[in-house]
Amino acid sequence: MVVASFFFASMAVGIKFASHSFSTFELVFYRGIVSVIFMGIVVRARGASLRTPVPMMHVTRSGVGVVSLGSWFYAIAHLPLATAMTLNYMSGVWVAAFIVGGALLYGQSEKQGPLLGTVLMGFAGVVLTLRPTIDHDQLFAGVVGLLSGMGAALAYMQVTALGKVGEPEERTVFYFSVGTALVGAAGMLFTDITPWAQVRWQDAAWVVPIGVLASMGQWCMTRAYSHGATLVVASMQYAGIVFASIFSLTLFGDHIAPMGWIGIAVIVSSGVLATALRARAMPNTPAEEH
Predict the structure, then answer these.
(1) 26 and 203 in contact (C-beta within 8 Å)?
(2) Do the Cβ atoms of 96 and 269 come closer than 8 Å?
(3) pLDDT tens-digit readout, 3-19
(4) How far is the C-alpha of 61 from the C-alpha of 66, rounded, in Å?
(5) For FRET with 210, which of 20, 66, 111, 153 sits at 20 to 30 Å CA-CA?
(6) Nearest partner of 177 among 18, 61, 44, judged by Cα
(7) Domain segments of the chain: what residues?
(8) Are the CB atoms for 1 and 228 separated by under 8 Å?
(9) How far apart, in whole angstroms, are the C-alpha atoms of residue 18 and residue 214?
């Protein structure tokens, strides 16, 4: 899980650099097409089939996941790397919020007090994180980053549903990559495409690594969830914020005020607590995808 977190944080570094030359839709497309090729090789090597009995579940999962992914890429391009990474990792708190909402809907709110506490704690962390680290012209990117975490939570729950109907992880990842490439290509039709003559080679060099790092991160994460204790693995995913913070400071010279660091710590703590509490309601949940 720690290795997976490192791969995802490294992918985010690639997005940060590549965004100097490419738009969000272009990055989504390139991430998707590279992952399609990579995961296609993995599926073939394992002798698995791409035929699925639940195609519409993959369509829904891919749609939500791509919106989340695109939002996250946009946030990475316009915010300090550590801040963008933290907002996306709010997904664990959003899952807890959805569980609390469902409990309220079915009149079981008296059982969800501790989980509601982690949700409120997480949003308090968001306030602390955003206020000192986002300029006024970055407020929109902050909201987009927050929505990326919500989308990741919805995708997380859909991956859980796919796992329960017996869909293998590599097939789910493959179709998510296909959806990513298709949406990215569609978006490029309605936005300006950067001519390759205007692309800096330092940015272009990240195109393939972004897709490979995303696939490797997902592969390591899936293996971690398959062989490790779900609660421990889910908690260890927050190592990605640590890696992102190190990259943010050393590679990009981002400045995060002390209150921002406190907010990041609060979000991580609330996510770990929410993971522990929601394990009762959603045991054996699979990995989130990026």
Answers:
(1) no
(2) no
(3) 988 999 999 999 999 99
(4) 9
(5) 153
(6) 61
(7) 2-278
(8) yes
(9) 15
Residues 6+ apart with CB under 8 A from 101: none
- Which two structure tokens, joined as six digits, stand for 245? 């913070």
Evaluated on CA atoms 173, 175, 177, 180, the torsion sign reads: negative
| CA 31, 282, 229, 125 torsion-angle sign | positive
Confidence (pTM): 0.83
Tens digit of pLDDT for each residue in 223-232?
776 666 665 6
CA gap 115, 139 in Å, rounded? 28
The per-residue pLDDT for range 125-183, each reduced to its tens digit, is 877 877 656 666 678 888 899 999 899 888 877 877 887 888 887 888 899 999 999 99
- Angstrom distances, CA of residue 22 to CA of 47, 113, 170, 201: 36, 45, 28, 12
